Amino acid sequence: MPVGHISVDTVASTPEPTTLLADPANHRYHLSALYISSAIQGGGIGSATMEAGEHMAVSVLGAKFITLDTWDRRLITDESKKEWREKFDYYSNPEAIPKFDPQGWYQRLGYKVIKEIDEFNASSGYCMKRADGQAWCIPSVYMEKAVE
Description:
Elements (H helix, E strand, L loop, with lengths): L3 E6 L18 E9 L8 H17 L3 E7 L2 H4 L4 H10 L10 H7 L3 E6 L8 E4 L5 E4 L1 E7 L2
Parallel strand pairs: 2-3
Antiparallel strand pairs: 1-2, 3-7, 4-7, 5-6
């Protein structure tokens, strides 16, 4: 039974990789695929996992910047973006819209937004595959943290 995982990548995990997120020649590495089982969330394991991933990127790969992508917090916090939630509902059950704010959590860990992707864009947005094989994309943000 997996309890979690994380990946330190030399290529961005976005549908179309971008050097804004991963560029080893410029010491930029992309953290992706962070998953902590909901059964054990809230006990500091996510923060410790991020710290370990950052440490590995710095000590093993020589990272100076760690990047990541996640959904835009305005999807769940900004009433002026109600149309985003309506489009989101097209892809999923309205009750499936998460209440957790990953962007805010990453900001508390020291990450800053470097790019907002407002549109539902399968080439650069935060996308996952649905069971039917179609892309499920929502407005997203690219974030970075200077490390050393």
